[in-house]
Every structure is written in C-alpha cells, then in structure tokens.
From TrEMBL:
InterPro entries: Peripla_BP_I, SBP_2_dom
Organism listed in the record: Streptomyces luteireticuli
Domain Periplasmic binding protein: 71-326
Lineage, top ranks: Bacteria, Bacillati, Actinomycetota, Actinomycetes, Kitasatosporales
Name used for this protein in its record: Substrate-binding domain-containing protein
Superkingdom classification of source: Bacteria
Amino acid sequence: MALACALAASALVACERGSSTGPAPGLPEPTRAGCPAGLARAEAAVRRAERTDTAWDGPVAGPPAVPGERIVYVAQTMTNPGVAGIAGAVREAARAIGWGVRVIDGQGTPAGVQGAFAQAVALRPSGIVLGGFDPRLTSQQVAKAVGRRIPLIGWHAVASPGPSRTPRLFTNVTTRVEDVARISADWVVADSHGRAGAVLFTDASIPFAHHKSDLIRQRLAACPDIRLLSVENIPVQDTGTRTPQEVSSLLARFGRRWTHSVAINDVYFADAAPALRAARRKGAGAPFNIGAGDGDPSAFQRINSRQFQTATVPEPLSQQGWQIVDEFNRAFSGAPPSGYTAPVRIATAANSAGATAWDPPGFRAAYRRIWGGG
C-alpha cells in the first residue's frame, strides 16, 4: 500500500485506502507537460460559477397549497451538515405552507436508517423525505411506503435530479453530480494553473458520493500535471475521529507536494483543520481546499476567515428544502414534478460577502406566491 501511494505521487495513480491501488479504468496516462486547453476551459468555467449577478430561474407557477399535510424527514445522519441543513429548511418551508414535519435521525448506520424509515412508514404521513441515503438500503421500507401510496422525495438519494422509477421516487432534489464534480476539479486546475498535487476525500459507502469522487478523478486526470497523490476513503460519520490522523499521515508522506484538496463534503475540512494547524500550516496557505458540497455555514465561516478552506461548491440548502415541500405539494395535487435543478456555483471569500450560505435569490417569495395561488 505504501509503495502504491508513493507511485501515485509521480504517475497519476490514486491510492484509495481499502480498495484497488490502480488507476481508474479509462483514465488517460500523462502525455505532455501542462494542459493549456484544459486550463483555459477550467478558468472560463470557474469565472462563470463565481458570478454573483444571478436571478431566480426556478418555478413561478404550480398548484396552490394543499392544507393540513404531514411529512417525515428521514435523515441519513444529522451529523452531516448538508443533511441537517436540508432538515432545517424543510421545517421552515413547512411552517410557511402550514404543514407538520417530523425529523427522524438514522444515525449514519444501515440499521439505524432502516429503523428510522420503518418508523416513518408506521406514522402513515402524507409524504416521506429520504435525506441523503441510498433507497436500496431501505428497499423493504420503500416498498411498504409505495404500497401505502405515500409519496417519496429524495435529497441526494439517487445520482440524478428528477423522478426515479427504480426506486420509486416522485422526484430527487439535488444539483447534478456531474456538474459539481466537473467544476470542483476545474477549480483545482484553474487555481493551480494546471500544476497541482491533489488529495481527494470521499465516502465510498455512499454510492452518490463515490460516483462524485470518481468523476472528480477523471476530470483531474485530463490534465497531466495534476497529480492525484491519494484518495482517502473516510465515511462521513467517522470524519471527526479519522480525518485528523489521516491528514497528519498525508503531511508526513507528501509534504509540500500536497498543494490542493477536494472533498465530497465540506465536513472533512472542519476535521482536517486541527491537524493542519498542528503542523504549522497557514490557514490561507497550501493545501488549498475545495468542498464539492454541501456549503453549510461552517464551511462559509472557514472560507471567509481563510482557515484551511478556500472554496466550496454549495448546495442551495434552503432553496432545496423549500423545493422539497413544493414538490410534495405538486404530488398531493396530482401535478407533475417541477423539473427544476439549481445551477452550480463556487463560493469564495471574494464573492460570498461574508455570507454563511448561498441560495438563488428570490426563491422564498416565488414559492409563497405559488402556494398562495398568486
């Protein structure tokens, strides 16, 4: 394992702990120094994603509010800031439309999520949210809910936004994982001017996250002088205990060759900070870190204070929570899903203006108008 990781530092081979040490199938081998075309493309994409002069481009029409509904939010784990942020936004939107909400925490384990989902079905709610977990983990509970005609809406539950036949979801609310992976990798290319030693943090136990990190690997591999030093497979629920020691090990192995990091969730950088600080690394210095989701308030705080995180590709957590409620209202009304998917954005200290979240402007007013029949 150590030999494979050492080779990765010089030959674009990722070493993912607990899995194969070889290159991902289909990844190109380095053929020349630098990547001028790729760098120009990445820089243009990053400039677009950093723009702040955007307007609401989501739904402006839909069915008026159905009164008196009750929904249950089943969370993969409330220690995941994105999952918790969506839960809070669903509660806020439910108050606005006049519904009741219950949140049940799956505690981040298969048995816990299955138990939480079974409890949700037993409550016979109007609808159930699958908050950040693969429905295949709860196939029996999903089948029971479908049999009882309880609409199901996912958040990061399957790989793509929109309706799903297998598993049966009215819709899945998420940004497009391909877009998030692409712009995260492009940021590393642009920020490093096409020359970086990168580390990728992922959770291979979550198919959505594993797919995202595979896409990031492929995008980085297109630039020969972006060297993927290591892929660290750390379950999200274990980041607090495992990330500090893994970061210390990475610092010892790669030293100054480690210039950039990408993580499938910002929480990894919260737990990396103590180890980087102990190694006397500067908060505004290398490794320069970008989170490929979720953009929770603590990530923005690290970015704005320049403390071991430079950028994030934030999910619009509040907007997506309101969208989940709006999608349920469409389901209860016999209407189709809205079809809306929020665009990707990069948040940095330069463009966040001290904010601790990002959401498309005007979404609350738009949804209130829809639900009020305006």
